[in-house]
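Bug: token stream looks shifted between consecutive jobs. Job 1:
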Amino acid sequence: MSWITSLHKRTLPSRSDDANAKSVDSSGKRIAVLVLGDIGRSPRMQYHALSLASAGHYVDLIGYAGTRPMEDVILAERIALRHVQVPELLLSAPRSLFILTAPLKAIYQTLLLIWVLLFFIARPDCILVQNPPAIPTLFVARVSAWITGARLIIDWHNYGYTLLGMKLGPTHPIVCAAKCFERFFGRHAYAHLCVTDAMAVDLKDNWNISGKLVVLHDKAPRHFRHLDSSEIHKASNIGNDPQLAELAQSSALGLADCHVDKQQGCKSLLTCRGADGTVTMHPNRPMLVVSSTSWTADEDFSILLHALEIYDCAYSSAQKGESKLPSLVMVITGKGPLREHYETKIAQLRLRAVRIVTAWLTAEDYPLLLGSADLGISLHTSSSGLDLPMKVVDMLGCGTPVCAYRFSSIGELVTESNGLVFDSAEELAGQLQVSLCWHQYRCRCLCNRCRYNDLAEKERSKSAFASRPPHKVHLCQFQCLMDYYCALRVVGSRHFAAKHAQRDLLATA
């Protein structure tokens, strides 16, 4: 029986978590926020918890331990972190045993979550549940809401059965059963929150849902912003990742045309400090491109790797002509099952002008990287075609233009005013050439104190590309990118944050 006691201690939440919920009084509602995943890797649900706490309510944030949550969440007096855990035996089972272990895992999670919601935490007035995963969270949340009399709110990030379909195939019997489960238990709730307009339309037309339907677009928090040269200089040593530490030593990159001007006091990869102490962007620096990922099957990074190979070849060809391309540093952040697979592929590449770095950043360091970047890339391909990648929201919040893989609802976020969309590696490579070559020209103009909104300068730059435009990139798109950079310089990046402000969640309750 000792192993049962040990398992009980490891998997149930600790009463010590109540230390986060201090000074509890009679005012404010109790909200249970259910995330059947790593809390630290669920930014939207953390933002919900912070919004509810700031409105004077008490939040039990239930989910897995793992990645450290945001400091604001940890320090919030009205948020109690309730970490639950599934036995490692069920998590580490080989994929070939998925059909056997998945039901056992679902049964265990059901019993554990029912215990937490009904017996462990204080009786909630409202249960906010993230979907996916749908199994067993929708069933548990609905049953718990019925027993306690709490209002149920479902936050639809995507459809769980479509993610399962990527693993087993869309016509697999288990996927069909999961779809029926999700439709039945997800149909009825007090309110439904959706990440896109397209998802709201689909739920209304095809799911016949009951309850309030609210579209709640993601928005980057205030600390996601564009950094100036002095802030980029200070942030050059962000993170404890060894590959990022190597980036701080620009001479170690081995990139073509990436030189360190010691007379100018260059101290980082991107910036240099002059004799008077003024920090500017180095005129011969490489362009910094960023992508973030969970390293899962819904993002095909072979597209990016092939595009970087094409860019590297274009760089070599351009060196022989008058128009030169900048060297490039590609930083890919995130954790996930396919990281080692792609790192092996990256190690096999032989690139002259491109350096690829894979790293993991904390929630505090991640916005510093995005705020320093020249361009962001998203390879997110929605399993349902109805969700939007949070990474793009964060990039645009930092004023960083984005090249995003095309799918049906991406137009709600990426438009001609803030980025480009692509369908292939060739198209992405062309967009890299356009945006980075223009950005390099912009940086040199700023170093020489040129007025960047000068129409004559724009026309000269545009005509230089008109003679040989890259693959499938139109001049109107190039003009939009130029206007975006100019406006970013004039009015700042916050103007280009996601256009929909996050509404108070309590308005639905």
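Job 2, same session, no restart:
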Amino acid sequence: MMCRDRFRANRRGFKQRGITLLESLIAMVVIAIGFSSIVMLQLRSMQSSQSSFQQSIAAVQATDLVERLWANACVLNDEVRRDEVLGDWRGSHEEHPWMPNWTGEMDFDEATSTYEITISWLDRLATGDEEDSNRTFRYLARIPVLDCN
């Protein structure tokens, strides 16, 4: 008789103790969504970090070419010598492990003595298709043509 009275007392307005199965399932779903969001955020952070790192490497490579051009400023009016400097620069950065499929190009504008250095590479961690994975870095440098004779 005591058990029946207790059951009836709970139905009359006494507070329930514990949680139901439905409440615990809803809590588990909310926690799972939150955890998967944190994992996706971490993944995106790693992709952005890798992309920034590669762009920094491209900036260092472009600066290296500009320094090589300044070191040969006396002979830059000769197109053959400019191509030799570009070839040496490409050779020194040819097998870079952090810049897969990279290419380096240089254009010279004689009117303004401006060099445009373009470095392109494949970002393997980028999201999307292969077109979105191609990254490009452009660097402009003005180096005067000197006559050192």
